[in-house]
Amino acid sequence: MENDEVCDRVIGTLDFQQCDMSYIDETPLASPTSLQESTTIQVTEPSGSPSTSLQEDIDSQESSSSRTSIQQALEEVINNPLLQEPESPSPYNCKKENNFVPIKKANRDLPIVLNLKRNTSQNEYMQRRNSLGEILSPITGEDIIIPSSLHHRDNLLSHSDPNLMAEGATSSCSSLPLKACIATPRHAKRKLKLLEDGEVQVCCIPQHRKLLHKILTSKYLRRWETHHLILTDSAIISKKMFGYMKNPLPYSAIEDVSYVLTLGSSERSVICLSIFKDMSYLLRTGSAYLGDQWCYSLNWKRKIFKSREILRSTSRSEVILREVKKMADEALHSQLQDHCVRQIPLDVVSHLFEEKNKLLSAELQRSVLYIVAPLMQNLIPSRDVCLFFSTFCHENPRSEVIRDIFTPLVSHILKHTVDFTKTCHMRNFIQDYIWSLYCQNNGRMAVKDFVESMHGESSCCPHPRVLPNLVSVSLAALYACFSDEVLSESDLESRLDCHLAALESMISFFDWRKVMAQILQPLPFPEKALRSDLFIKRFSGIIYEIARDSRCEVHQLLLGVRDEKESWLDLYRPSTLCDAILEDQDVWVVMLEALFCCCFRRKSFVQKLVKHLWILELLAVRESHVVQEILCCMLEWDLVSEDESVMQIVTALQSTSSGKAQYALLVEKKSYLAELQKKGGPRKLTLPSQSTDTDVAKLLSGGSLGNLECLSLAFTNVTGDCAEYLIRLPSLRYLNLWSTRFCDTGLQLIAEHLMKLQVLNLCETPVTDKGLRCLVSLAGLKKLNLNSTALSLGTYEYLKDNLPELEEIDIRYTDAWSELAPASRAWPRMT
């Protein structure tokens, strides 16, 4: 009898059949009066049996004394700050009209108020009460099942008032501790990780009707088994199939997921899985947090399984939209914050359209994409989702979905993807997205607008990964255009125009140009593309932008990675003697001008152009000033040995007025050089310490210095600019530049022209490895002083291996000297 009273107090007249596991009503209680009007209240008297029907409860409230007692109890409930309704919805699918009103039990006489839907008959109620009694039998006050339709798991009393817990611990069986049924707010919405597997204790409880079976399955005779459970897409399985879990437990067989609160221990949590065939499985975890994870994860898996099965078995548009909407809402509002929660509904939708693509209309696909669009925020799509999006782009290139939904997703991928070689499916999706933009009205401008939006309005793009990813996408698309699959000429031209428009937009940004030039320097295109006139013609605009950049580190990248490698300068030079020979002459001349007039006015660079002499002569006739200057340098430095070739150069220069002026300056300079290099003059010369580049120029133009073999500029203020005067001394063998500001540029000129140099002192000069590596062209160099320079160990080894006549080298106080082992520093020093 005592157990029956307990069950009556807790269960009341709860309608188990109509609990569909929705949400707890969050509507606040306005007043005691309004609560009486909107709910049915069951009052548990201090002594005696509880009310047995709804009508008896209503009749008992007609007396003024009972009404006053109820009003006082309700006022105490409403005014208690600890007993507020939970702020976040429960995930356990209680109907919104069902409420669980928390009550603080100040003493035993306070009634328990449950705001529940009471439309269950007395017989059904007694059956459900007896069924609950079977699971709990014998009830001892230590545990109780709270159905998911009543319980809000995030509001357990274990985080409530400690005084209330202490009082509940001493309660008798006739008056259960309110820890079993009172819920108070714990904290804000909790974030949980989706569980795929874990170790729990499992107990199986058959729902028998006979007394003997009830006793055998009572609490104290239960047998718990430890299993490592795995939550698959369709069932719960055990890693080792034995005992209760020797067979998989499909989600379709689970009727409900609820909690069993163990009152004796607050550190454990028990979950009840109700099975259709009069069976219940209890899962016991080590903590309440793990219990939350298992409960939310099980419910999530069940709902996704149900939606997936419905979508597989139907082709009706309204059913598909309803189920997709249900999955999207669950993913957006679930307390599970794992990335799989948003990814799984997208995978289900992608599989649906892959299987039923021909049966589903374009309008239905568009509606589904708009429904799942919120799931794509800050999400990296899987392979299946990318394939689905790519297919949609191919089949509906002019759909508004492309810009409305795919643009934020593509932007997120470009900003956060590190390596497309591991995620080729995302790169292919972005290629198809860009092609869809090109297929729309004014497609070329749409592609450029997209690239500009990725860069942003500031002068420097704040996302370092955007440019490498965009270039990777465009290069892969251009490579695919020239793959084994043969495209028609019109399709090839359209594809080239699409992706070259993206590259042109990228190269137009100042902060992106250097990185793009570095990526394009090794000619990262198939051989078929580099021999295609259409590709070379369309790509010339990008090369032109690189050549027009004033930064040396940018336009230098037009040359090859190494001397023997083909470069853009080689690729764009005119190649045939015909009327159309110089279609690309403007680009080639612009590249020559950028290199020769800035940082490659050097003998080695001009010497490489001698083999293209006939092209230079033709361009000189067409009044290209930079080409005329290059031809004059060839004559000045005696790079052309054949008399016939020299006469052709002179004829080409004198054919135009600008060429005649250039040739006149050359004749004047040659006569001066002849006068300067006449035999005579001093053999040794030392300049004062305050000498500058201007002083060196005046001194070397004052008379014959053909016999000058030793020149000392130590401790002067000369720089690398004086190198153009030093190279006019053909007999120079000894050059001292100690403690000057002589730089790499001047060192490169000296290495190309003073071939008789044997002794060179660069102590305490700002030269670096870039200039020092050019010294290998001075094959007769015997003594070299690099004390206190920026010499590295690699350059030191390179010079030592490539200067066969080198006898002495001073590398003290350099990086190379500090890295060498003490035993290896026995090189002779220059004195």
Automatic annotation (TrEMBL):
Which Pfam family, any one, appears in the UniProt record?
PH_21
Q: State which residue ranges cross the membrane.
A: none
Disordered: annotated segments = 29-70
Which residue ranges have biased composition labelled Low complexity?
61-70
Which InterPro entries does its entry note?
CMIP, LRR_dom_sf, PH_CMIP
- Bias (Polar residues) ranges: 30-52
Give the signal sequence positions: none
Q: Which residues form the C-Maf-inducing protein PH domain?
A: 191-312
Could you tell me what this protein is called? C-Maf-inducing protein PH domain-containing protein
Q: Record the organism.
A: Darwinula stevensoni
Source lineage? Eukaryota, Metazoa, Ecdysozoa, Arthropoda, Crustacea
